[in-house]
Amino acid sequence: MEDKIPMSSVDIDARDIRAVTGVIRSGNLSFGKKNAEFESAMADYLGVKYAVAVSSGTAALHLIVKSLGIGKGMSVLVPSFTFVASVNALLYEGATPIFVDIDPRTMTLDPVDCLRKITPQTKAIMVVDTFGQPAHWDEIYSLAKKQGLKIIDDSCEALGAQYHGKKLGQLGDAAAFAFYPNKQMTTGEGGMVTTNNAELAALVRSYRNQGRDAMGQWLVHPRMGYNYRMDEMSAALGVSQLHKLDEMLAKRERVAQMYHEKLGKYDWLETPSIPSHIKMSWFVYVITLAEDLSREAVMEGLQKIGIPSRAYFSPVHQQAYIRSLPGMANLKLPVTDSLAKRTLALPFHTGMKKTQVHQVVSALVRVVEKLRNESRRKRAA
Ligand SMILES: *Cc1c(COP(=O)(O)O)cnc(C)c1O
Q1: Which of 60, 75, 86, 238 can bridge 191 by disulfide, Cβ–Cβ 3.0-4.6 Å?
Q2: If you write DSSP's letter for every residue of 255-277 in order, what string do you get?
Q3: pTM of the model
Q4: Which of 65, 108, 155, 157 to mutate to test the pocket of ligand 1 (most atoms within 8 A of CB)?
Q5: pLDDT tens digit sequence for 235-252
Q6: Which of ligand 1's atoms lies nearest the C-alpha of 128?
Q7: Whose CA is nearest to atom 2 of ligand 1?
Q8: How many of the other CB atoms lie within 10 Å of CB of 237?
């Protein structure tokens, strides 16, 4: 029996473990040297002036929205083909999400649909670098400039990705990263805000820490804030993981290449389409099944032979709590609605072996061939 293939898996080594146990022994468990070290290492890695460590990617997004002053009576363009946190960060502040459709090739925001949906209330664009693929930044930039919109980059799936040779995190007014265990690197729970704007960074720091000011006293709170701090164990793990991030990204790239090579020859799926001016930071490996295949049947078939898979993404505008908001019940996003029924994330992680990729692909081929034979037989009967 071969080992069960997991959907995702963390890459934790002895050095990571030493980093965390070292903090626990030191007794300084919150908001100390390791936070500062992680922040400056991340700022260096990404080429940004300011990096602020927080408790999650969702907290990072919320603090950016809050610090940009986005709230009631304002709207923000956002894809529906994303993780719910991109949209919830807007709802927390009472802002209205305006769902925009995506480019079917890259699965990122469609700039033409963005332009179409701007209203006088629109204050910002929430860009999502879906599955580790940078969005159409040139088009989004010129649109935002012409229309006077702020840009928030939800780069929670794209740490280390590049657009025309520039790392994400420098693009837009501020960017959010996440370190949940299924991401490219992990701190357990954790996130980071990056920006080149000093004032914005200072506000994020204050809101993260109960509204305290940088030099302020422990019980002086100029504004209402949150406890979105990162603990020192997480920060130490972050430093250690960041150290080997490029190595992990290269391993993930190789796994993606293996999938590409094995899957490229089949006509019942599309593999990810990667333009030459971008560098992926592979978060997950997502294929798009042909329209005549039932994704649910494929997933069930895979599950029966012990291969996990996920229906990434389930569009946000189709979630019950969003549909109950004014004007959302009948919202149609043709590309999102069609793609979201057919996309399938395959098992994918840094340490995945060639034999495991082979096992997943041959299972997928078997399942699809069986489904196709069954439907052929049905049609003949
Ligand atoms: C993971 C993720 C987040 C949030 O991350 P958490 O750390 O789990 O809060 C936000 N947006 C996107 C697109 C993500 O994939």
Answers
A1: 60
A2: HHHHHHHHHTT-TTEE-----TT
A3: 0.97
A4: 157
A5: 999 999 999 999 999 999
A6: 13
A7: 156
A8: 26
